[in-house]
Design a protein that fits this description.
Distance between the termini: 52 Å
CATH architecture of the domain at 96-144 and 207-331: 3-Layer(aba) Sandwich
CATH topology of the domain at 96-144 and 207-331: Aspartate Aminotransferase, domain 2
Helix content: 25-40%
Structural class: alpha/beta
Shape: globular
CATH superfamily of the domain at 96-144 and 207-331: Type I PLP-dependent aspartate aminotransferase-like (Major domain)
Radius of gyration: 22 Å
CATH class of the domain at 96-144 and 207-331: Alpha Beta
Length: 455
C-alpha cells in the first residue's frame, strides 16, 4: 500500500543526526531502536517510510498495537471528529459520550458469559498498568496474596507485572509449566505434555505440603507472545478454567497482545470457549493510542472509591480511535480473515522449513506467527536455539525493507505481527523477503556447533 506524500522527507544526513542524538540522549534501556535504526516519518497500512526515503513493510505493528496498520482512515476520522467537536481531551474518569461509545462497543465483543455480568476499570495508559490493576483486584477481592503464573510469561515492566513474568522472582508467585509442543518441559509434547502440565498444577494446589501460597488468582496468556509465540492448547485452557473454578481462584486472561482479532478470534480465549473472570486489555483496543482496561465479573467489584486510580485513564482520543477499530474489526470480520491468512502463511513457512534445517519450529495462531531458529548439528533431541542467526535474519530483513521482531526465551524466534488488514499480495511480499533474508543470514552466520577456524 502506498504512503501519502504530504510530509517532507529528511535527507540521509538528517536521519543520521537524529539517530546519533537519540543514542546520546536516550537511556541504555531503549530496545527497538537498537535493532531497527530507522527514523519513521510517514506511514500508511503496512508501510513505513523512513527519513532516508526508504520504505519498509512493518510486521512489528507497534508490538501488535496496530490492528488496522498505520493511520487507517477510520481511525483518523474518529480522532478528527473528536478534535473538531471541541470535546475535552482530558477528563480523568468522568463519563463522556466518547467513553460510553467505546465501552458499549467493547462489551459487544466480549465472551457472552462475561459481557452479561461485567464491570470495567480504566487504568493507566499501558498494558502493564492494567495487569497491576488485575492483580490488585483479585488480591483485594479474595483476601489472598499468592499468584499462579507460568514459565515464559510476559505481563509488563512494572514491579507486580514483572513478578508475574517468567524472568522475575517473587515468593508470592508460584511458577507453573506452560505447555510447549516443541520444547516441552517434560520431553513429550502434544496432548500428553499438556496433560502432565495440567496435572502438575492440580497436584501443587491440592498438596498441603507444596508450599504454594493461597492463590488470589491465576494469570495466563492464551498465546505467549514475548515468550516465543506459543499457543496454549484449547483443552489445556479449558482444564485451567476448571482447576481455578473448582478452587474459587479467579482466572485472569492477559489479552494485551492477543486481543482484537490477532489470533483469528476476537479474543484468544474464544478459541477454547473459556470465559475468564478477568480480562486484561491494551494495545489494539486504543486504535494505536495509549489505552488499557480490565473487564471482570461484577462479584469481584468490591473496591472502594479511589482504590485504583490514574490521571490518564480518560484518554478521549484513544477511546474514539479504539471504538472505531473495534467496530471495523467486528463488522469486517477481520478475525476470520486473520485465521485464514495466518493458516496460509504458517503453511508456507512450514514448507520453507522443510528446505532449511536451521528453522526448528514454525508456530502461531492467526496473524501472530513465530519462526524459531536453531543449530541442527547437535545430538540433542531438540536442537538448541540460535539467537545469533535470528539477529542476522532480523538485520537481513531490515536491509530488504521488512521489519520483524525477535522473541522467545533465548531471543531466537523471529516474530511476525502484521496488521489484520494485510492483503494476499502483501503477505506474499513479506514471506518472499523473509525467505531471502533467511538464506542470506544462513550463508553468513556460522552455526554455534561449528569448531571455527583452526589455529
Amino acid at each position: 500500500m502506498a504512503v501519502t506524500d504530504s510530509a517532507p522527507v529528511a535527507p540521509t544526513s538528517a536521519q543520521e543526526g537524529i539517530l546519533r542524538r537519540q543514542s546520546l540522549r536516550e537511556s541504555a534501556a531503549r530496545t527497538y531502536a537498537r535493532a531497527l535504526p530507522i527514523v519513521p516519518v510517514r506511514a500508511r497500512g503496512l508501510t513505513i517510510e523512513g527519513a532516508d526515503g526508504r520504505r519498509y513493510l512493518d510486521c512489528l505493528s507497534g508490538a501488535g498495537t496496530l490492528a488496522l496498520g498505520h493511520n487507517h482512515p477510520v481511525v483518523l476520522e474518529a480522532i478528527k471528529k473528536v478534535l473538531d467537536s471541541g470535546a475535552p481531551l482530558h477528563v480523568l474518569d468522568l463519563a463522556t459520550p466518547v467513553k460510553d461509545a467505546f465501552t458499549t462497543e467493547l462489551f459487544a465483543t466480549l465472551p457472552r458469559g462475561l459481557a452479561d455480568d461485567a464491570r470495567i476499570q480504566f487504568c493507566g495508559p499501558a498494558g502493564t498498568d492494567a495487569v497491576e490493576a488485575a492483580l490488585k483486584l483479585v488480591r483485594h477481592a479474595t483476601g489472598r496474596q499468592g499468584l499462579l503464573a507460568f514459565t515464559g510469561a510476559y505481563h509488563g515492566m512494572t514491579a507486580g507485572a514483572l513478578a508475574a513474568s517468567g524472568g522475575a522472582t517473587d515468593v508470592r508467585v508460584t511458577r507453573l509449566p506452560y505447555p510447549h509442543d516443541y520444547r516441552c518441559p517434560f520431553g513429550v509434547g502434544g496432548e500428553r505434555g499438556a496433560g502432565i502440565a495440567a496435572r502438575w498444577t492440580e497436584t501443587l494446589l491440592d498438596d498441603p505440603k507444596s508450599g504454594v501460597p493461597a492463590p488470589a488468582g491465576m494469570i495466563l496468556e492464551p498465546v505467549q507472545g514475548e515468550g516465543g509465540v506459543i499457543p496454549a492448547p484449547d483443552d489445556w485452557l479449558r482444564r485451567m478454567r476448571r482447576v481455578t473454578a473448582d478452587r474459587s481462584i479467579p482466572l485472569i486472561a492477559d489479552e494485551v497482545q492477543t486481543g482484537v482479532g490477532r489470533t483469528g478470534a476476537f479474543w484468544a480465549v474464544d478459541h477454547s470457549g473459556v470465559v475468564p473472570d478477568v480480562m486484561v486489555m491494551s494495545k489494539a483496543i486504543g486504535g494505536s493510542l495509549p489505552l488499557a482496561v480490565i473487564v471482570y465479573r461484577s462479584g469481584l467489584d468490591v473496591w472502594q472509591p479511589g482504590a485504583h486510580a490514574g490521571t490518564f485513564r480518560g484518554n478521549q482520543l484513544a477511546m474514539a480511535a479504539g471504538a472505531a477499530t473495534l467496530a471495523f474489526v467486528r463488522e469486517n470480520r477481520l478475525a476470520e480473515r486473520a485465521a485464514t491468512l495466518g493458516a496460509r502463511m504458517l503453511g508456507q513457512l512450514q514448507g520453507l522449513a522443510a528446505a532449511h534445517p536451521r528453522i526448528g519450529d514454525v508456530r502461531g495462531r492467526g496473524l501472530m506467527i513465530g519462526v524459531e531458529l536453531v543449530d541442527p548439528d547437535t545430538t540433542a533431541d531438540v536442537p538448541p536455539p540460535d539467537p545469533a542467526l535470528a539477529a542476522a535474519v532480523q538485520r537481513e530483513c531490515l536491509g530488504r525493507g521488512l521489519i520483524v521482531e525477535l522473541g522467545g526465551r533465548h531471543n531466537a524466534v523471529v516474530r511476525l505481527l502484521p496488521p489484520l488488514t494485510l492483503t494476499d499480495e502483501q503477505a506474499g511480499a513479506v514471506l518472499d523477503r523473509f525467505a531471502d533474508a533467511l538464506g542470506a543470514a544462513e550463508n553468513t552466520t556460522p552455526r554455534p556447533s561449528d569448531p571455527g577456524p583452526s589455529r
